[in-house]
Amino acid sequence: MKLFWKTRFGPHLTILFGGAIVVFLLFLYAEKLRLWTIESLFPNRITWEPTASSPQKNNKGRPDPYHLPKTPFRIAVAPIVSPESSLIRYHGLAVYLGSRFNRPGKIILRDNYLSINRVIQNGECDLAFICTYAYIVGEREGYLKVLAAPVIHGAKTYRSLLIAPFGTTAKNILDFRNKTFASADPLSFSGWLYPMLVLKKAGEDPRHFFSKHIISGSHDRSVNAVADGVVDAAAVDSLIFAAMPEEIRRKVVVIDSSPPVGMPPVVVPSSLDSRTAERYRDVLTTMQRDPEGRSILASLGFDRFVPVTPADYASVREAVRQWETH
After folding, report:
1. CATH superfamily of 160-258
2. Which of 76, 184, 217, 280 could make an S-S bridge to 191, C-beta 3.0–4.6 Å?
3. pLDDT tens track of the chain, all 326 residues?
4. Measured at the alpha carbon of residue 26, what is the angle toward residues 23 and 32, in degrees to the nearest 5?
């Protein structure tokens, strides 16, 4: 009987038992993956200001000067691309810049451009990467100043692109009356200001022109929304569009584009003293001179950083003026 049991049912029981173990292990692994957060994968990220850690003490009960917590070098990044992509892209830069000032690097992310502007306004970051329209707003309100901007594939400018699904017969934005449209953020020049200004100049009311106007939260999400047929059209940053996977870009077509404008800038709070701001600028604009800096620039798709001034954004400033007065 035992021999019969082993020969008849033994292999099947072994397979069933082994399969149960595999399923159980897969469940544990999936649960582990679920519990892994972005913060654990990238410990240098912060999304909200952390509570300061208590300094270590020496054997006399006094703070040990060799173990005092260092204030992080905080980089705020507007969600020009999705927060997950922003974290991956800018993590190395935060660590690099922090190391140049003997501080841990930290990234501050928010879910919209205005929130990042408020981080700057409140002095909660050391420098920030923001959109050109958001820069003009902060400049006008007096809480930030421009420092530098990236050069990308030899270019110091970018454009707003109007995109639609491949095969569309539309020729310009006016052909999307009563259609669905996506913008990254209301403070985006390429995603919102430029296309809305085009409509306004044509005598249209942007508030009622589309059947539905979606705020996607980032340019890569806007591109994906068009590629997946979620919306009929979108206005996006030409830099982000060019960096999208080829299989995504093949699904859409560029219908129109804006004149070139200055690259999205790196800014600092206006309260930062000029000497420190100059040190930040020097570190950014010399990154290409050392191997680590070149590697990080390459990971971002940047050639280098160059100094910029408010004059480099005169065309965006004029677009804002026209939007507000037209």
Report:
1. Periplasmic binding protein-like II (3.40.190.10)
2. 184
3. 444 444 554 555 555 555 555 444 544 444 333 333 333 333 333 333 333 333 344 444 444 444 445 789 999 999 887 766 777 889 999 999 999 999 999 999 998 999 999 999 999 999 999 999 999 999 999 999 999 999 999 999 999 999 999 999 999 999 999 999 999 999 999 999 999 999 999 999 999 999 999 999 999 999 999 999 999 999 999 999 999 999 999 999 999 999 999 999 999 999 999 999 999 999 999 999 999 999 999 999 999 999 999 999 999 999 999 999 97
4. 145
